[in-house]
Design a protein that fits this description.
Chain B: Keywords: Signal. The complex is a heterodimer of chains A (320) and B (439). Chain A is mainly α. Chain A has helices spanning 11-55, 74-81, 85-117, 124-131, 133-136, 139-149, 156-163, 175-203, 207-215, 220-231, 233-248, 252-257, 274-284, 288-319, and strands at 58-61, 64-70. Chain B is α/β, with parallel strands linked by helices and 439 residues long. In chain B, helix 10 runs antiparallel to helix 11 and helix 18 (402-417) packs antiparallel against helix 19 (423-436). Classes of the chains: A mainly alpha (320), B alpha/beta (439).
């Protein structure tokens, strides 16, 4: 269709134009609205991720990133089998034990607390708000307070176990004692947060179920096991996933708990997590390449954990 | 960067990765910012920013006000961070980016060998040629520390950390040892192993629950830092064969196995409370440590501490002022740095906050030579002890990882003191730690 002069659009053409505009609008506008998120994500999420991946294939100093030397998978090889592998496997093991020590009691206590708060009791609103107080405390403040509690010289923890006839424990020096101390901080901070999530889910459980159970003569404990827990299964799975991710990335608590030797997770690396190892390599030893390799290994580990979780979730759904 | 440490754990790793990449992005896009600007013209109003950490004492001594009064066109803004570690992390990122630095930046002695290395030295201007600066005024080893291999001096010394030994005279008396500063200095003069021997003598008759020293890491650092050969030799890291590292390690192990050390980690809360509980009798005492002793021991222990010379003169701590080459007012910044590090100003800082001058001219001034600490051994010649130590320190070769090694060895000694590893295991772990942290 070629024309020498533009002619005013006929009513039909205008109609056509309008419907096309409408179609673009209904199809395109959602994309325009979500675009800011994806642009920001690309700039601050995707790009750093890819850039870190690129860095992990180089030997590169923090001070001269433009002088990166290509080493291929050398950083990963170092990490898994080379000189620093001792520290990597140690950090991985610590991450798993610290994660288990903090996640399991934290979620168990949270669900118990939520169950109690779900009953009618005085000052319920206040108690529910109070649950969030530890979560609102900064890691730095909480860790410093707990470092004093677990101090070998006149700390509250030693005073307490002394009441039961136990001797002085050098909390920070031992592998298990230090991990227990750090797990306590994590548990203290996150239990309330998880309890609120459980509480919200519990409110959605129909009251008739409890009434029926009560009429059948079920105790509160039985109600908890046979009504609450099954109804909460998807929520529990959600919190397990979130807490696992959190535990894998654990950084602030061990870093600050160690004081002078926090950057390497204690004098003997006894509580060095993967997050702390990454910081130590990148910012203490200024080896960006190796730090990036640790970051990517953590990322791969999380993907793996996510996959396992998805499989379990599917199993559970099928079994219902 | 401080943010990374304090955010909730779920996010911190992601943030860390983000920060790494962000630092990298900044780097990639930056190169040097071109020609060197001249001094501000007469009457032209400029603002000089001074980045420092902890207590440099310039504000306390009224030096900035005095300088601004003498130079009405200059306004000085101090940009100060409490913790040196946080300050350095931020400065590191600015250095990597080549921008965002103050006109004057302070550097702690632990960072100076990295700053003078080939990797970083071009980020700072050469201050040897700045007007009013004369090499001979400064302590030779201090001047050397800030000088690069190609003979550029990128930092002028502010304070130094000559070591003495602070001791509890009441505990010394209780253990039947002399307690007067001169007599105590004589007990171990010239040899660190005599200090350990005195420790055994102390421990034999010490009041129950008291130790001779707070930690053997202090002893280790004392021995290494008072030697001519430390961690480097011939431009290379050579700590395994260094005589001072060997003897420092073996003395620290001796002190531990003889039960002389309480095994505390320096600067930790437990270490701080131990001062108040009077559970140890001596601590390595660089000049800046006086403030800690007074603060942590508290009023209840006033008059119980005293100060003696260390077995050999060593240095722990002290800082420099540098002028980054990316600054807009380099000539003015150089003039300010030269003035701040001149003897009269350093003496005023010493008077105000107790930082021992690095400018030799200041030692003759009565503010320094006549100084006595009202809390620690009120009659001890503290000013003379520190100036004598500062002048006696031998220059030692250093390198970019010297600070890291000091840190790694302190950890190695803690492995023995706190984690009860054998000396051999602790040495191997320390060597592994060092090997894996240097690429």
């Amino acid at each position: 269709m070629t024309r020498a002069l533009p002619t005013p659009p006929t009513p039909e053409r205008r109609q056509l134009w309008r419907s096309r505009l409408y179609r673009w609008d209904s199809k395109g506008t959602p994309y325009a609205f979500v675009a800011p998120f994806f642009v920001v994500f690309a700039a601050f999420g995707l790009f750093p991720l890819l850039y870190t991946g690129w860095l992990s294939l180089h030997q590169v100093s923090l001070y001269h990133v433009n002088q990166a030397r290509w080493v291929g998978l050398g950083n990963y090889r170092d990490l898994f089998t080379g000189a620093p592998s001792r520290f990597f496997w140690n950090a991985l093991r610590n991450t798993v034990t610290l994660g288990a020590l903090s996640t399991v009691p934290q979620l168990a206590m949270a669900i118990g607390l939520a169950h109690l708060l779900n009953y009618r009791l005085r000052a319920r609103g206040f108690l529910r708000t109070a649950l969030l107080a530890p979560y609102a405390t900064s890691v730095a403040a909480a860790t410093l307070a707990f470092a004093l509690i677990f101090s070998p010289e006149g700390g509250m923890a030693n005073w307490f176990i002394h009441l039961f006839g136990f001797g002085r424990v050098d909390w920070e020096a031992g592998r298990w004692s230090s991990q227990f101390a750090i797990a306590t901080i994590v548990t203290w901070r996150w239990t309330g947060y998880n309890a609120l999530i459980y509480l919200a889910a519990m409110q959605a459980v129909p009251g008739e179920l409890y009434e029926a159970a009560a009429i059948d003569g079920a105790s509160r404990l039985r109600q908890f096991w046979h009504v609450t827990v099954p109804a909460l299964r998807p929520t529990i799975l959600f919190t397990v996933v979130i807490s696992t991710i959190g535990a894998t990335q654990l950084f602030g608590e061990p870093f600050l708990f160690g004081g002078q030797s926090g950057h390497q997770g204690g004098a003997d690396n006894q509580y060095e997590t993967l997050g702390v190892l990454m910081y130590d390599q990148g910012f203490h030893n200024s080896m960006l390449g190796r730090a990036s390799a640790v970051a990517w290994t953590m990322f791969a580990l999380l993907l793996l954990l996510g996959l396992v979780n998805a499989l379990i979730a599917r199993r559970l759904r099928r079994s219902q | 960067m401080h943010q990374t440490r304090t955010t909730r754990p779920r996010r911190s790793a992601l943030l860390g990765a983000g920060a790494l990449a962000a630092a990298a992005v900044l780097l990639a896009g930056c190169s040097s910012s071109g020609g060197s600007p001249a001094a501000a013209g007469p009457g032209q109003k400029i603002t000089l920013t001074v980045g420092d950490f902890g207590t440099f004492g310039y504000k306390e001594a009224g030096l900035f006000d005095a300088y601004m009064a003498a130079h009405p066109n200059i306004t000085i803004k101090e940009d100060t961070t409490t913790a040196e570690a946080d300050y350095w992390t931020a400065l590191q990122t600015h250095l990597a980016a080549g921008s965002g630095m103050d006109d004057v930046q302070a550097l702690e002695v632990g960072r100076i060998s990295l700053a003078t290395s080939d990797a970083l030295s071009s980020a700072f201007v050469d201050l040897a040629k700045a007007p009013g600066v004369s090499k001979g005024d400064y302590l030779p080893w201090k001047w050397q520390q800030a000088t690069t291999a190609d003979n550029r001096t990128i930092g002028l010394g502010t304070d130094v950390g000559p070591m003495a030994i602070c001791y509890r005279q009441d505990l010394f008396q209780a253990a039947g040892l002399p307690s007067d500063p001169a007599a105590v200095s004589a007990l171990w003069a010239g040899d660190w192993s005599k200090y350990v021997e005195q420790g055994k003598a102390f421990q034999a008759k010490a009041p129950k629950g008291t130790y001779f020293m707070d930690t053997a890491t202090g002893l280790f650092n004392g021995v290494v830092s008072s030697a001519a050969q430390q961690y480097y030799q011939g431009g290379k890291l050579d700590y395994k064969d260094s005589p001072s590292v060997k003897s420092a390690w073996s003395l620290a192990m001796q002190a531990d196995s003889a039960g002389l050390s309480e095994g505390l980690k320096e600067f930790d809360p437990a270490w701080q409370t131990a001062f108040a509980q009077s559970s140890f009798a001596t601590t390595i005492c660089p000049s800046w440590q006086q403030a800690n002793i007074q603060k942590f021991s508290g009023a209840a222990n006033a008059g119980k501490w005293n100060i003696a010379q260390a077995p050999a003169a060593g240095n722990w701590g002290g800082s420099f002022l540098t002028v980054p080459s990316s600054g807009k007012h380099q000539a003015d910044a150089e003039a300010l740095v030269a003035w701040l590090t001149a003897p009269e100003q350093q003496a005023k800082v010493f008077e105000a906050v107790g930082n021992i001058p690095s400018n030799q001219g200041a030692y003759a001034l009565s503010e320094v030579s006549g100084y006595k600490n009202p809390y620690i051994g009120p009659n001890a010649p503290t000013g003379q002890i520190f100036s004598a130590a500062a002048k006696a320190i031998q220059p030692a070769e250093t390198g970019p990882h010297a600070g890291d090694l000091q840190n790694d060895f302190s950890n190695g000694i803690l492995l023995v003191e706190q984690n009860h590893k054998s000396a051999g295991d602790a040495w191997n772990t320390t060597v592994q730690q060092i090997d894996s942290s240097i690429q």
